[in-house]
Write a structure and sequence with these properties.
single chain; Nucleotidyltransferase, domain 5; five-stranded mixed beta sheet; two-stranded antiparallel sheet; 7 strands; globular
């Protein structure tokens, strides 16, 4: 049980270059304020200064908001030096600021609000447990997401340039940024570069870059489409050709970097010994994204806590004895999106065989629809079940075993 008189409360407002700490006692009286740089060499001096406010019998408790970003280095230092460190949800400190008659916003007051949360809600706050492995996976996932986003932007730029050069370019290849397509755009960024190129020469080039996947027919089709498009060469064509080649080089670089990041992710994931990829719809990227958002699953006492964290569990709204459960719009939205996409994949049906990817979840989905639930509500039910399964797989490091049921085609 939290005995307030036995502790000193240190709230820290975290920033990129410097931090501000405010120290208060159990009566919420401000005892002092410390400003220090955000670097390990300044953390030891900070601890010594905090020690000047500690009387005999008192134990300091530190409260930090951003333990995954700018405050992670400080959190790691304090934990390594056996200090009590609590993670304060920014929503709590925001509510504390708004609860006063005069709303103010500065580093000192923000830090004091964090310290006040420590005093009033210490038993409800989670301990800070920074894990380098989970943090590194999270950083790699963030890096990969940034690369994928940049690659999508480059792909759109390529579409714009090619629409001027090759009006029928979408008929050339199935994917505008495929291996063969990129090699073609780099070699022939405009019809101007295809002048005097014979079918035989283009065929030899395509066979080489596609590992013999493209034939004479593909070369004939491309040259025919170029001829049908008409004259597209304009002034400063060489500059526009340069732009296409520049975009192609950048896309190739992004693809290579994504490959490097995924290889590093695979190595780190092997250290955790999870078997999430045994479930249909989960591969390396999805598994690493789940781990990046969930972190150490042991910080959740049960699957219900994880569901609430992901914003999947319903929230009760009521007053005067009346109320109802409503869909939660809170929680970790990135994790919520991962579970939603995973739920959609569980009920997908193959176009060719018309067999569901996961027969168990497909049957469950159809049963919920017959009960009168909407498609969205039925997917939420699947998401909730997936939380239980993922939680169990991560906690026990077990593989997913698909129950054996008789598969049948979807009519």
């Amino acid at each position: 049980m939290h005995v307030r008189q036995k502790h000193l409360y240190v709230g820290v407002d975290l920033h990129k270059h410097h931090h501000t700490a405010v120290i208060i006692n159990c009566w919420q009286e401000k005892l002092g304020e410390i400003q220090f740089e955000n670097k390990p060499s300044a953390f030891s001096k900070f601890l010594l200064e905090v020690g000047n406010y500690i009387d005999e019998g008192l134990t300091p408790i530190f409260g930090l908001e951003d333990v995954g970003g700018y405050g992670r280095a400080l959190a790691k230092y304090l934990v390594d030096h056996e200090q009590i460190v609590k993670e304060v949800n920014p929503a709590l400190s925001f509510a504390e600021r708004k609860s006063h008659m005069t709303t103010q916003k500065n580093d000192s007051w923000d830090a004091e609000c964090v310290a006040r949360i420590l005093v009033n809600k210490l038993d409800q706050l989670p301990d800070v447990k920074p894990h380098d492995l989970f943090w590194s996976i999270q950083q790699l996932v963030t890096r990969r997401n940034a690369l994928v986003k940049a690659q999508s932007a480059l792909k759109n730029q390529l579409h714009i340039q090619l629409s001027h050069h090759y009006p029928s370019y979408k008929k050339f290849f199935s994917e505008v940024d495929g291996k063969t397509a990129l090699a073609f755009w780099n070699k022939y960024p405009s019809p101007f570069c295809l002048e005097d190129v014979s079918v035989k020469q283009l065929t030899v080039f395509l066979l080489d870059v596609s590992n013999n996947a493209c034939s004479v027919k593909k070369a004939n089709d491309i040259l025919k489409l170029v001829k049908e498009d008409g004259h597209t060469v304009k002034e400063y064509q060489e500059t526009r050709d340069f732009l296409v080649r520049s975009i192609v080089r950048d896309i190739l670089f992004k693809k290579q970097e994504i490959s490097h990041v995924e290889r590093e992710l695979k190595e780190l994931m092997s250290l955790l010994d999870f078997q999430l990829d045994t479930m249909p719809g989960i591969e390396l990227v999805t598994a690493s994204a789940l781990i990046a958002e969930i972190g150490d699953v042991r910080r959740f006492p049960n699957a219900n806590k994880l569901a609430r964290f992901a914003g999947i569990a319903p929230v009760y709204f009521g007053s005067g004895g009346k109320g109802k459960e409503q869909k939660s719009k809170q929680g970790n939205r990135a994790l919520h999106a991962l579970f939603y996409n995973l739920a959609v994949q569980q009920v997908q049906v193959a176009k060719g065989s018309k067999l569901p990817r996961n027969p168990v979840f497909y049957e469950y989905y159809q049963r919920k629809l017959k009960e009168g639930k909407t498609k969205g509500q039925a997917l939420v039910c699947i998401m909730r079940r997936l939380v239980n399964i993922i939680y169990g797989m991560m906690k026990n490091k077990t593989a997913y075993k698909l129950p054996i049921i008789k598969e049948r085609e979807v009519v």
